[in-house]
Amino acid sequence: MTLGCKVNKYESDSIIYKLNLKGFETTDKLEFADIYLINTCAVTQEAEKKSRQMIARCRKFNKNAKIVIMGCASQNNFQQFVGRNVDYIIGVANKIHACDIIENIAKSDKLKVANEIFDLPSYYEDDMHAFTTRVRAYIKIQDGCNNFCTYCIIPYLRGRSRSREIFSIINEVSSLDDEIKEIVLTGIDVADYKIDGKPSLALLLKELDTFQKRLRLSSFEEGIIDEEFLKSLASLDNFCPHFHLSLQSGSDSVLKRMNRHYTTSQFLNSINLIRKYFPSSAITTDVIVGFPEETEEEFNETVEFIKKANFARLHVFKYSNRTGTVASKMFKDLSPQIKENRSQILLKLSEELHRKFISQNKEGKVLIEEKEGEYYVGYTENYIKCYIKSDKVGINQIVKVKIKKSYLDGAEAKVIK
After folding, report:
1. Are residues 24 and 87 in the same domain?
2. Rounded to two decimals, what is the model's pTM?
């Protein structure tokens, strides 16, 4: 069971792959099993709570099951899982060790309950490869973070930024099934991908473009955006123009307290530069509401900036106090009601912006991923979720569509050819 980010998902898929090689029957669905591995998240208090609750959810299916805990929540505070009738606890480092633990549990019912939190590595642990069979493959290229935003605990749990060797990434992509039509590069700070200490994300994308699979980036930082980087992306045949840039606040004073390394003016310049090279691109973002001491005026500045930036969609998070971060020591937290009110305002604005973005798009190429009821469902290059009624398409096809109107969390579309 996996909570949290795409990096966690990639790591869980890697463990599934290795367990399958060892002869285990595996599933990532919540159902009956003899052994449960819970890959936890600690990005917010709520994420840690859900990680703990997952133990009880697993027990409902099999009260006699063995349970192994790993990930950011156990790295942050393994004591929260002690006494909850779990069998083994590891953290973030050496996650692939979970396969050996599970193998030992399967061989013996007398395995001693243990907590094994390894030191965080200073190098990229290149022992995980997911080898997915899904339509879209996530490829982890980087781990850790050097930014130390005042609200974020992840650098303390994942360690400093470190990049995967380019030959290892290429080898994994080479091994993917030909049926996989799209790859998504993921990491804790994708923009900080380096080769021999030099920023190299554009070079990596150029190498991967030769595989004739759609290329997509997960969330990344605004600081990488410049003319040279965008020219490089525009020269690629398979790049999907969806830029998820983490804003966090549209108020310069809040950004300073967050220790974000840009101003709203710089961020807007980056957005304008992206639209110069990719006019139809989707630019989405993350926003934290209710950061400690955020005033009504600062929140209104964020609202106005979001409108000016004209994002395609927002991911809205209520500030969560994380013990050990600078923000938890320096600033006074706001009330839950203020956070909720501000969250609702931005969620409503996000819906308006998303409908507007959809209305500005007439056509797209959709990779069909699944069928939901009578609709085939997939995403355009610029990440519009499309619902298609047709008896002439199938899963894993890329089809050209006309976008008709907003529908559910995306758009209803019609196949052109």
Report:
1. yes
2. 0.94
